[in-house]
Amino acid sequence: MEPLRRHRGKVAVLDRLNVDTDQIIPKQFLKRVERSGFGQFLFYDWRFHADGTPNPQFEWGNGSADGASILLTGENFGCGSSREHAAWALSDFGFRVILAPSFADIFFNNCFKNGVLPIALPKETVDRLFAQVKAAGDGGQDSGYALTVDLEQQTIYNDNGLEVSFDVDPFRRKCLLEGLDDIGLTMQWEDRIAEFEKKYAPRERYELFSNCYLNFE
Amino acid sequence: MLQKTGPKTLVEKIWEAHQVASEEGKPDLLYIDLHLVHEVTSPQAFEGLRLAGRKVRRPDLTYATMDHNVPTDNPFVVNDPIAAKQIAVLEENCKEFAIDLADLNSSAQGIVHVIGPELGLTQPGKTIVCGDSHTSTHGAFGALAFGIGTSEVEHVLATQCLWQSKPKTMQVNIVGERPHSVSAKDIVLGVIAANGIGFGTGHVIEFTGDVIRSMTMEERMTVCNMSIEAGARAGLVAPDETTFAYLEGRRFVPSGDAFEFAKEKWRTLRTDEGATYDKEIVFDVTAMKEQVTWGTNPGMGTDVDGRVPYPEEMESESARRATASAIAYMGLEPGMRIQDIEIQHVFIGSCTNARIEDLRMAASIVRGRTVKPGVRALVVPGSKQVKLQAEAEGLDEVFKSAGFEWREPGCSMCLGMNPDIVPEGERCASTSNRNFEGRQGRGARTHLVSPAMAAAAAIAGRFVSAKAMLEESIVS
Ligand code: SF4
C-alpha cells in the first residue's frame, strides 16, 4: 500500500446524502476477476446513460472531477452492501481522501484497508468547504479547488488561510503513514511466524502436506 | 502466549497449538495448516499479491481445484464467459504461484470440500481455511475448519496466518437410539429445526455423543457441513478409530511409522474430562423421522409425515411473518401434508451429500424403479473419485436406467452458478444445504432432504418416506 503522509489534491464535490455502495459500484461490475480496474465503473449509473454514453447532467459531467484525488460529499457515505469493490473503485479512480460528515461502518473500514483516508468532519465544516469549492468555480480539467491533507499533523488546509484539524484512530493513522496494509502489518510478525514454523515443524519430513502440526501435549 | 490452564475442549487445544501471537484484548495470530482455493473467491486475492509484489508464503500448504461454476454436462465446454475466465485465471495463478491444482483434467478434481478429505489433505488437528462457508465440512476429522472472505484469502496466501478472535465453544450432544431410516442429513436438519438457524452464532460446535461416534466419516461430514447453517463459525467431531481408518493410505496422509506417530498425537485430540463449553445442547434422535424442509431457510423443516405449519401457530410476530412469506414463496398452503407436495426436479449432489455413501444410499432406493414421468432428476457426484468409484460399482447404470442424468463432478445445482438451475416457480428435492430464495435459480423452490429421500421423491414425484418405499408399501 502506498503511504499517505501529506497529500495535496484537487477536490471533487458530490453534494448528496446516503450514497450507497450500489451507486458507488453497481452490481453488474462485481463479476470481475481483478481488484483493479474498477475506477472506470465508479458511479457508473450516474456518470453514464444506459447505452454507455456519458451523462452531461451528472454533476461531474463537465469534467469537474477529472484529476481529483479528494472527494467531498454528504452524510452516511458508503452505506448498503459490504462490497469492498466500492473502496477499490474509489481508489482506482484516484481518490486518496474522502471528506464527509459521516460514513457507513464497513465502508469506512474497507477504505483504510485500501489506502484511502476517510475523514469525518463536523457538518458545518463540510458545508463551508462545499461553499468554498463552489465559489472557486468548478469547471474544467486543470482548474479547481485544492486542499492539503496532512495526516501527520491531522490538519486540512488551503492557500487561503483555511485550517481545520481532524481525528483519526492512532493505529490506522500509523498504518497509512507507513503504508502498511493488513498483510504488511502481519508481515511485521515475520520472525514469530518463522519461529513458529520451525518449532512446530514435523518430527520428520513426510511427503507433501503431512506436516500437520502435531503439538498437542 | 495467552493459554488456558486446566482441562480444555478440543477447540481450545487446536487453537492453542496454532497461536503464533496473542495479546490481551486483541485477536490471535493463528497459523493455517491447509488453505484450499477455488476459482470464484480467489482471483482478486492473487491479483492483490501481484500488485503488491508478494509471493505465496507456503504453496505447499495450499491446494486448488475448480468446482463452483464448472459445467457438469461437458465440463470442457464453458459457455458463460465469466465462468470460463475464472477457470482460466485460476490455472494461470496456480502456475505463477506454484500451487497444486486439481484442474478439469485431473482425477482429483471435484467439490473442494469433497476432495480435501478424499485426498487426505484434511487431517485431525489442522487449521483449515477456504474462501467458502462450507469449509466447516472438514471439521468431521477433528480439524478446525472455517470459511473466509477474499481479503483473508489474500492474507493467508501471503502470510499463512490469520488474525482471529477466539470463538466461543458449544457442545451439541446427539444421543438416543438412532432409527435405521434416519440419515445424518435428517439429524442435522432436525437439530437446526429444533434450535433455530442462529443457535450456533459466534460458536464453534463440537458434536459429541454415541450417535456421532457410530457415524461413518461421510455422515460426520454431512453433519459438520451444515453447522454453518446453524450460524456456527465451524463444527467438528473429535477423531477416533473411524477417522484413522478412513485416512490410512490416502494420498497426502503419512504412511508407516509416520502414520503411527501421527495417530498417537491425534488420539490426544479430545475434550478433556471436566472441560466446559460456553453452551451445551442435547438432541435425542430416538423418535426422529426422515426430514423435509418446507420453507426458505434450513431450519424450516419437519417430518416427512408432517404438515406445512400455520403461521398463526408461531410464537412471535416476526416468526409468523417469516413463516407466511416462506410459504408464499414456496407456493404451498398452510396445513398441507408434506407428502402431497409434488416436485419437478431432483438434485442429488453438493458438498453435503455427494460422496460415495450418499450415492449408494440413493441407488439402493432407485434400483429397479423408474423416475416419475415429468420429473427431471440429476445425480452430480462430488468428485471424480466418487464418480469413478460409483461407476465401478455400477451405480451410474442404476441411476441412468431409472431415468436419472449422470453428470460430471461440480457444485452444479447447489447454487446454480453453472447452467444447472431450477426454473422459476418449479420445485426441487435437493440434497444440498441451502434453500434460500433464489438459491437454485431465480424463483426456484428448494426442499432440503437426504439422498434417500431425494431418490424416493424422484420415483414418486412427491415427498414420500424412503423407508416406506424400501419396504415396498408405496406404489408410485
Ligand atoms: S456444493 Fe454448494 S455449498 Fe458446497 S461448496 Fe459448492 S456451492 Fe458451496
UniProtKB/TrEMBL annotation, chain A:
<comment type="subunit">
    <text>Heterodimer of LeuC and LeuD.</text>
</comment>
<keyword id="KW-0413">Isomerase</keyword>
<feature type="domain" description="Aconitase A/isopropylmalate dehydratase small subunit swivel">
    <location>
        <begin position="1"/>
        <end position="123"/>
    </location>
</feature>
<dbReference type="InterPro" id="IPR050075">
    <property type="entry name" value="LeuD"/>
</dbReference>
<dbReference type="InterPro" id="IPR015928">
    <property type="entry name" value="Aconitase/3IPM_dehydase_swvl"/>
</dbReference>
<comment type="pathway">
    <text>Amino-acid biosynthesis; L-leucine biosynthesis; L-leucine from 3-methyl-2-oxobutanoate: step 2/4.</text>
</comment>
<dbReference type="InterPro" id="IPR033940">
    <property type="entry name" value="IPMI_Swivel"/>
</dbReference>
<comment type="function">
    <text>Catalyzes the isomerization between 2-isopropylmalate and 3-isopropylmalate, via the formation of 2-isopropylmaleate.</text>
</comment>
<dbReference type="GO" id="GO:0016853">
    <property type="term" value="F:isomerase activity"/>
</dbReference>
<dbReference type="Pfam" id="PF00694">
    <property type="entry name" value="Aconitase_C"/>
</dbReference>
<dbReference type="GO" id="GO:0009098">
    <property type="term" value="P:L-leucine biosynthetic process"/>
</dbReference>
<dbReference type="GO" id="GO:0003861">
    <property type="term" value="F:3-isopropylmalate dehydratase activity"/>
</dbReference>
<dbReference type="InterPro" id="IPR000573">
    <property type="entry name" value="AconitaseA/IPMdHydase_ssu_swvl"/>
</dbReference>
<keyword id="KW-0100">Branched-chain amino acid biosynthesis</keyword>
<dbReference type="InterPro" id="IPR004431">
    <property type="entry name" value="3-IsopropMal_deHydase_ssu"/>
</dbReference>
<comment type="similarity">
    <text>Belongs to the LeuD family. LeuD type 1 subfamily.</text>
</comment>
<protein>
    <recommendedName>
        <fullName>3-isopropylmalate dehydratase small subunit</fullName>
        <ecNumber>4.2.1.33</ecNumber>
    </recommendedName>
</protein>
<keyword id="KW-0432">Leucine biosynthesis</keyword>
<dbReference type="GO" id="GO:0009316">
    <property type="term" value="C:3-isopropylmalate dehydratase complex"/>
</dbReference>
<keyword id="KW-0456">Lyase</keyword>
<keyword id="KW-0028">Amino-acid biosynthesis</keyword>
